Amino acid sequence: MSVLELQNIIKNYPDGQNVNEVLKNVSFHVEQGEFAAIIGPSGAGKSTLLTIMGALLSPSSGTVLLNNQDISHLSKKKQTEIRLNQIGFIFQNSDLIPYLKITEQLQFIQKISAKEPLNAKKLLQQLGLDHRLNSYPNALSGGEKQRVAIARAFINQPDLILADEPTASLDSKRGREVVKIIQKNVHQQNKAAVMVTHDERVLDLVDTIWQIEDGKLKKIKNH
């Protein structure tokens, strides 16, 4: 069964007298244990699509199913609960809280979770951050910050991981390390993950590749 399924998604924005159709009848699915990538040129609709997948934006029409539940038309409060407990986000700029130590970043998420979270210290150690547990974000390298962001995304054991250009601020070596960590955790924990990326050097690490162009999505690589 698909963890996430998009059915006939359309997203329009008013543009003066006209309507700008950003997503045109897009359908998509990702299953447990599958790491999918979405590629495409700037302005093609990648970020809009990921935002709709994460229940941060509602489509103009169509259905977003997470574990077979339509999440696209729920109340804002219910969507917030779903994002907290069922979706993990990894952003391109890590978005860590500057005044919290690394372990505290994860503990903050744990406190407001309805699920049984993973052990924060153990997860950080698995990601090679055992020497950084009491550090603040400003003491970390870009790669270390992204590893903390990955830990934060996985800590509540969400069903779906969404990664928005996770290698954008990293060099090629660090970027590949970060995507390998996502891949490993997705497969080991049997999660579903979707990564939007411009970085073609990491595409060998994903299971499926989808391409978006002019608001239309098609699969170009299967398992």
TrEMBL record:
Transmembrane segments: none annotated. Keywords: Amino-acid transport, ATP-binding, Cell membrane, Membrane, Nucleotide-binding, Transport. Residues 4-223 form the ABC transporter domain. InterPro entries: AAA+_ATPase (IPR003593), ABC_transporter-like_ATP-bd (IPR003439), ABC_transporter-like_CS (IPR017871), ABC_transpr_LolD-like (IPR015854), MacB-like_ATP-bd (IPR017911), P-loop_NTPase (IPR027417). It is found in: Cell membrane. PROSITE patterns: ABC_TRANSPORTER_1, ABC_TRANSPORTER_2. It holds the Pfam family ABC_tran. Belongs to the ABC transporter superfamily. HrtA family. The complex is composed of two ATP-binding proteins (HrtA), two transmembrane proteins (HrtB) and a solute-binding protein. This is Putative hemin import ATP-binding protein HrtA. The lineage of its organism: Bacteria, Bacillati, Bacillota, Bacilli, Lactobacillales.
